[in-house]
Amino acid sequence: MDYLQLAIFHLTTVLPAFLIGGYLLFSTKGTDIHKLLGKIYMCLMMVTAATTLFMEAQVGPQFLGHFGWIHLLSLLVLVSVPKAFFAIRRGDRTSHMISMIMTYVGGILIAGSFALMPGRLLNDWLFGA
To answer: How far apart are CA 45 and CA 21, in angstroms?
Structure first.
């Protein structure tokens, strides 16, 4: 896959994750729908984060000739999602909640804000180059 295909695939996973995650943050916790959507959200976020590791940093300094600072948010998601999953399995709702909030804020809101900055592909698509 080239960079453009990866970016499109990334958007197809992150956009539903944005909507589902937002719903989950404000919906009643522990219901069957919360559990189902939570599993879908976690899968989407893991695929989203993994996909970004194949996308070369386009803005700012690169590390190892590929990664940029924004990739740290991908690592946050790749750690936080399994941590949240195992926390809720053992009944630790507080750790689950903290990890899920970190995933949404860091992996979607902050990363999304960076993606909208001038010079980034999403900014070019939405606002013109």
So the answer is: 9
DSSP letter assigned to residue 55: S
pLDDT in tens, 1-45: 788 899 899 999 999 999 999 999 999 999 999 999 999 999 999
Among all chains, which residue has been given the structure tokens 């948010």? 73
Q: Which residue has the tokens 């879908």?
A: 40
Q: pLDDT for 98-129, tens place per residue?
A: 999 999 999 999 998 888 888 777 888 888 86
Give the number of domains in the chain: 1
**Helix/strand/coil for 54:** coil
pTM above 0.70, yes or no: yes
Q: Are the CB atoms for 87 and 96 separated by under 8 Å?
A: yes
Domain that holds residue 52: 3-127
C-alpha torsion angle, residues 61, 114, 9, 84 (rounded to 10)? 100
